[in-house]
Amino acid sequence: MYSPQKLHPISYIDGLISVIKSNFIVIIIFLFNIKDFKYDDFSSYIIPGIMTLIFSIGFIHNIIKVYNTRYWIEEDHFILTTGVFNKERKELNISRIQSADTSQGLINQIVGGVELIIKTPSDGIELGTISKKQSEVIEQELRSIQERMNNQVNQEAKELNDENHTQTYQQHAKPQYAIFKMPFKQLLFMSMTSGAIALAFVTLSPIIGSLSSVIPWDKFGEEISSVFKTIYFIVIFIVILVLLLSYIIGTIMYLIKFYGYQVIQDNHQLKIQYGLFTKKNITVPTDRLQGVLEHQSFIRKLFGYTSIHFYITSDIDTTEGEPTDNDGRIMILPFIPRKEAYKVIRPLVPEMTFNHAKIGMPLKGFHRHFLIPSICIIGIGIIGWYMWSLWSLIIALLPILLFFVYAILYTRFSGFAFSESELVVQKASILNIKRFYVKKEKVLGMTISQHPFLERSQLANFQFVIAKGSSQQNIGLKFSEVDNVLKLKNWYMKGDTHEVL
């Protein structure tokens, strides 16, 4: 590890696969249209030739980049050099490294290769494919160096403070143990209640759109017409069929993605492992925790299940495939009974109490959620009625109805509460409920906004800001009682912080 190391040879195949994936739709279209290819027409070779040239350039670029990549440890730094025309050298201070994550695709599982991602609070290194043994050696060596550096710091602190000689500075390693394993039955239930239809639509729509010219839609329509005699039933049948297929495919995709999900505690880190064809190993440093989020859809609420996310700080972009919705928000418990969820996370963050929010927002703010949007939509509907037909006004009623339902849910299920050192904010939307738990010392700022109409109604909006990844997360509510917002302000201003009015 202390001399330049090369990537695993499978990295060259990974480069080929990445080029194929980036041009997948184009390749599929070409293969389905090859039967109409005119071999005696020179102009027919132009587009395939351009495609082949682009494909070759991308593949050669990846080959050279893999060939030039080297990594090693030099003193207290992890060094990576890479590049095609311009060599790039990146050095990470090992004492700043907070996690080393791995990703193992299907081919890598066969040949024993892994992709290693090393993260620090301000930067990171994403290696190509190396052997699993190399990955383990790197992690062990990095941990060994960090322990040695920590011992040196502790020894210096001990020498400067002799009166505290009885204090133990060295942290004793605790054995790893699994704090959560998702059984298959629970995984299946999660997949069936996790927006599988939307996932399938997003994944399959581009592919189906690209293949629409080769799919025999006319023959398919004739078969349906022979069963259903009216266009009304044909449309209903097609919609139900598409939704059903999307639901089944989306459920299977969730099963594959989160197969074998488990969370392992290793001192102040959590190691998340999951995946069937692509195995992921994600490390979450709990000492960089900024806040906790409970995300619960109304469907899961009916069955008593929920999910838990952590907000952490890290300036490196989120790695593709991580169980995260955005940079800095990492899913810890994707699907678990709500009562069990807090039994699991309380030992992980013993400084937090996870109090209940006092739900229920002022009724005088109810109409403000939908009044102005509804007026705008009705205006558009009237214009459509005048220009087109009455159906424009009828269609406009649907989003108005959604705004009205949202106002009911927001007013009924939103709220907040705070103790001396902790804040909880519960915010409802039309699909889910989010509960934010934040320690007071993690709050970076507070904003209170109030226009004249809100001031007359004794209402105000508030937002707290915490760090999240390389950016920030806003946590707040609209149309709260002014007295309650002022209590929040007084609670917040007791600390060494700033507030904007």
Label this structure with key terms.
YdbS-like PH domain-containing protein; disordered C terminus; transmembrane helix; globular; 43% helix; 22 strands; 501 residues; eight-stranded antiparallel β-sheet; alpha+beta; UCP026631; transmembrane; seven-stranded antiparallel β-sheet; YdbS-like_PH
| Rg of Cα set | 28 Å
Principal-axes geometry comes out as globular
Strand order of the largest sheet: 13-14-12-11-18-17-16-15
- Structural class, judged by helices and strands? alpha+beta
**Biggest sheet character:** 8 strands, antiparallel
The number of distinct β-strands equals 22
Distance between the termini: 54 Å
Walk me through this protein's architecture.
Keywords: Coiled coil, Membrane, Transmembrane, Transmembrane helix. The chain crosses the membrane at residues 12-33, 45-64, 187-211, 231-256, 370-388, 394-413. Residues 67-140, 259-345, 412-492 form the YdbS-like PH domain. InterPro entries: UCP026631 (IPR014529), YdbS-like_PH (IPR005182). Residues 135-163 form a coiled coil. By secondary structure, this protein is of the alpha+beta class. Among the domains are: 10-99 and 144-164, no CATH class; 184-257, no CATH class; 363-411, no CATH class. It is built from 15 helices and 22 strands. It has an eight-stranded antiparallel beta sheet with strand order 13-14-12-11-18-17-16-15. Helix 6 packs antiparallel against helix 9 and helix 7 (196-210) packs across helix 9. The model is unreliable at 163-172 and 496-501 (pLDDT under 50).
